[in-house]
Design a protein that fits this description.
With 201 residues, this protein is of the alpha+beta class. It is built from 5 helices and 10 strands, in the order H-H-E-E-E-E-E-H-E-E-E-E-H-E-H. It folds into 2 domains: 42 residues; 141 residues, CheA-289, Domain 4 (OB fold (Dihydrolipoamide Acetyltransferase, E2P)), CATH 2.40.50.180. 27% of the residues lie in helices and 33% in strands. The chain has a 5-stranded mixed barrel. The chain starts with a helix and ends in an 11-residue tail after the last helix. The relative contact order is 0.17.
Length: 201
Amino acid sequence: MAFAHRRRIKLIGRAAALSAEERLRLILEERTERLAARAGHESTPPVERERVVVCTLGREQFGIPVAAVALVLPFPACVPVAASHPALIGHFGRAGHLVSVLDLALALGLPPTGSEGGHCLLLRRDRPHVALRVDRVQDVASVARIAGEGVAGVRSNAVVGLAQGLAQVEAGSPDEPGTVSLIDVERLLAAFLTPSSAHGA
């Protein structure tokens, strides 16, 4: 605002020594610049936000839509099961329901992280009841999609894109979560929701 005011005073000072035609040209140039700046600002599309639960697997970060997560729990003791897929690591009981636990790293085709314990994300769904085991849940964050490739080694179509914390996208802030790989929960579960893998869930 102060800069625009100083510029206007400067233009008026210059205009005093100019002819009427030159003064008109200066005024028109200033108005054109203001309109162009306003149009450029208005045409900038708003950043599309997605709220995700940011969790880690080893050194990688993944984002799971907040709407898909009912609860975050410390990893409970599980009853091992004989399963056709190594990602189904067991069951635990909660509120009268049997919950099937999938190790997210194994479900994505990644090698085991070697981390013990961790967290479980109880998914918001009726049947079967499913939880995802991750190394650690970091935060809930608003993120914006960015261009780029996903995590190397992922053998699943459940990773649907990359995103960064909005502050990083807009201002380069180091306080927001770094790059996260976004997960489509229904795509992830599609390979496991069969009568054999969800038995008793």
